[in-house]
């Protein structure tokens, strides 16, 4: 009898049904936890992006303290006020050279070695500057942006074969007439702070430094992104449906942009009502859900929502338009 009882005793272990139940429970837990994990990672990336932009804001103000003005968005040729492309007596050199805004900020952003290696008497695309402009700057890269190993290789200005490391931030300095003429933005004075070949002082920002943005996210360049989807096409560069965004390099003279307004889906040409995260073709664009980060003229960084109207964005760009803005409007 004892032997019979032992033979019929149930052995411990999982049945197939029990195993399937456990697997199902684990799958449900993963499905519940994964969005939370992804959200936490994005929150960390967004904080790092904000820190990058705060570093830029600090560098801008250190530059302003040293020079009495903010940096221009770009420089074409001699710029005696900043001692660029001039001889020992301060006389402009005949050679036309172009430089981007970040170059001027390097010594104020703990990048003195890189700045000293850059030749301001040579164009940014010349061989003399090839090593510097190909150097990747973590300060200029948003961690939420896909593929950090991006380079601007667009031939321009008679220069060929140059290669510039991409940057995800640029001066947002104007409202383009097409947005005004189409009625998306009211007529007004929308000149921004950082413009090409001119410097602005704090006194010229009469709308207030805390009400005026200077630098915005324009992530993912030189690839074109529309509503979070990368454009992949054999369409030649320069056609209506371009697959390459110029000005992508952090050292590029053309990294600044203005507000055009695009169709809401990011396709087609401006104008349109969308100002953020529709397309990164010279418009504010980030990989953060719901909006993008901006450096303001007081050095602070603010997140402007996609749902803020295009007129609000225009008012934030303007340095002396007399607009009245509240923080809850964006």
UniProtKB/TrEMBL annotation:
Pfam family, one: SBP_bac_10
InterPro entries assigned to the protein according to its UniProt record, in alphabetical order: DUF1559 (IPR011453), N_methyl_site (IPR012902), Pilin-like (IPR045584), Pre_pil_HX9DG_C (IPR027558)
Domain of life: Bacteria
Segments forming domain DUF1559: 38-307
PANTHER family: GENERAL SECRETION PATHWAY PROTEIN G (PTHR30093), TYPE II SECRETION SYSTEM PROTEIN H (PTHR30093:SF2)
Listed name of the protein: DUF1559 domain-containing protein
Organism annotation: Singulisphaera sp. Ch08
